[in-house]
Design a protein that fits this description.
Blueprint lengths: L1 H25 L1 E7 L4 E7 L4 E6 L2 E8 L5 E4 L3 E6 L2 E6 L2 E8 L6
Antiparallel strand pairs: 1-2, 2-3, 3-4, 4-5, 5-6, 6-7, 7-8
Pfam family, one: MliC
InterPro entries: MliC, MliC_sf
Protein name: Lysozyme inhibitor
Amino acid sequence: MKKLLIVLLPTLLAGCSYYNNFVERMNTDTLEYQCDEKPLTVKLNNPRQEVSLVVDNQQRILKQGLSASGARYTDGVYVFWSKGDSATVYKRDRIILNNCQLPAVQR
């Protein structure tokens, strides 16, 4: 019986891990913006209230912050600010990606 448990336990744990990854992907939306400078892919996770994006050749995870209008995500250095189908990315209050728009098919 102990041998069976030793064999099944890793399988059950792997199944839980797979399920958690599956649920995480189901709660994540991928948004493809076209900005003036270049394309921008943003992964939006509403339950975690965060976005993930590549800026300055590094993956950044920004947490949702306070916003008077639209949705604002920040890590203290970078800010992703979206409202409707448009977005802007800032680095230390300086715009680095401007006029980012979602294509009509994603609206």
